[in-house]
Amino acid sequence: MNNAKAKSVSYSKTTITELMIPSYANFGGKIHGGILLSLIDKVAYACASKHAANYCVTVSVDNVDFLEPVEVGDLVHLKASVVYVGNSSLVVGINVIAENVKEGTLKKTNNSYVTMVAKGDDDKPTKVPELILESQEEVRLFLEAIKRKELKKDYRQKVKEVTNMLAESTPKALLEGERCKLDLKKFSL
Ligand SMILES: CC(C)(COP(=O)(O)OP(=O)(O)OC[C@H]1O[C@@H](n2cnc3c(N)ncnc32)[C@H](O)[C@@H]1OP(=O)(O)O)[C@@H](O)C(=O)NCCC(=O)NCCS
């Protein structure tokens, strides 16, 4: 059932805590980035679907910068909240914090934004409830999300222009100073 009544940010706030076990580690002994991405997706889904009261799908993940390595034995806390709603889309902000329980230290490893879209029983995007903003911080995050959406639109347009430009001609001069070698026997520019 989709409850169309507006909901507060706190209604769907979600935290997942996961212990970093040895099978999550890479050969360097640190936690695989993919494990954290999977947890980010999971907590974003839980948070978005609670707000939407519907099944949601992941459309886009922004700013996945791993700021610090996460160690085996750490407790990873993923704190998610809805920061923006459109018609059928929601943006979930996620803070990822790694806790070393022995030393009692916390370190911030990620701050990501996941865009999810709510789907109805017909598998089509469906309207989500409005978001009730109850603090300056929530207003700030909502406005930031609008700005990010506009910037992403500009970015996509610019990438399209560059791709089209490079499809028409491949100026060799652009490679000057780059760490690559042209094997001119194989092709010509
Ligand atoms: C997400 C999806 C439903 C969008 O379908 P669509 O036909 O483009 O639908 P619409 O154009 O009506 O867009 C629906 C919403 O998605 C948003 N959206 C679509 N693509 C987006 C993108 N790349 N980034 C952010 N938002 C996006 C639109 O802005 C719109 O938001 P609004 O309703 O709040 O205005 C469709 O692309 C899909 O099903 N993708 C696969 C998702 C999935 O399976 N994810 C799991 C990964 S395997």
Automatic annotation (TrEMBL):
- Give me the Gene Ontology terms describing cellular component: cytosol
User: InterPro entries annotated for this entry?
Assistant: Cytosol_ACT, HOTDOG_ACOT, HotDog_dom_sf, Thioestr_dom
Q: Has UniProt tagged this entry with the keyword Ligase?
A: no
> Which GO terms fall under biological process for this protein?
acyl-CoA metabolic process
**Which GO molecular-function terms appear in the entry?**
long-chain fatty acyl-CoA hydrolase activity
Report the PROSITE patterns cross-referenced here.
HOTDOG_ACOT
Annotated keywords: Hydrolase
Could you tell me the superkingdom of the organism this chain comes from?
A: Bacteria
* HotDog ACOT-type domain residues: 10-122
Family per similarity comment: Belongs to the acyl coenzyme A hydrolase family.
Q: What is this protein called?
A: Uncharacterized domain 1-containing protein
- Organism for this UniProt entry: Reichenbachiella faecimaris
Upper lineage: Bacteria, Pseudomonadati, Bacteroidota, Cytophagia, Cytophagales
